[in-house]
UniProtKB/TrEMBL annotation:
Descriptive protein name: DUF2489 domain-containing protein
Organism: marine sediment metagenome
Pfam families attached to this UniProt entry: DUF2489
Residues covered by the DUF2489 domain: 15-154
Segments forming a coiled coil: 31-58
Length: 170
């Protein structure tokens, strides 16, 4: 009988030790989960901040190009190409229908997006380059009114960074 009591006591001590160890592991797991949630929240905040900073830079560039186009300091074809690429990188809060919102700039972009630029133009004959330029000029003329209206919308919707609203185009 003494042996039985001793075995029960030893068994109870072992079970109590294992229960204590399991409790410690559960506590550490809980603390680890809290730390992970905290780190994820910190990463989300950092990501949101970097997205805001990136959007601010993009908005500033988009705004300045639209102003230059509106003041006819930048060709509509070049400006449309640049604005469309920048807008494609901008993180909008919801899905934007950009072609529907800026139809003139989108139409111009569709015309010039496949046209060669810079060194790539040198590979073509003068006749081919003139043909492409003529198509581009016709498209600029055709969409000029809508592009100007789109530029006005963009200037209102994409705010310039502080200080850059005073940039003067000569």
């Amino acid at each position: 009988m003494n042996m039985m009591i001793l075995a029960l006591c030893v068994g109870a001590v072992i079970i109590a030790g294992l229960a204590f160890y399991a409790g410690q592991l559960l506590y550490k797991l809980s603390a680890q989960k809290k730390q992970i949630v905290k780190e994820q929240a910190k990463q989300q905040a950092k990501l949101a901040q970097s997205r805001l900073e990136r959007n601010a830079k993009l908005a500033d560039s988009i705004h300045l190009i639209a102003r230059a186009m509106h003041q006819e300091q930048c060709e509509f074809s070049e400006g449309s190409l640049r604005i469309w690429v920048l807008m494609s990188q901008y993180s909008f809060t919801d899905d934007e229908d950009l072609p529907g919102r800026y139809p003139g700039i989108f139409a111009m972009y569709e015309v010039v997006k496949e046209m060669p630029t810079h060194d790539a133009r040198k590979k073509y004959s003068k006749k081919e380059i003139f043909k492409q330029d003529s198509a581009r000029w016709r498209a600029e003329e055709t969409h000029a009114k809508q592009i100007k209206a789109d530029c006005e919308k963009i200037i209102e919707e994409f705010k310039a960074a502080p200080g850059s609203e005073n940039v003067v185009f000569n």
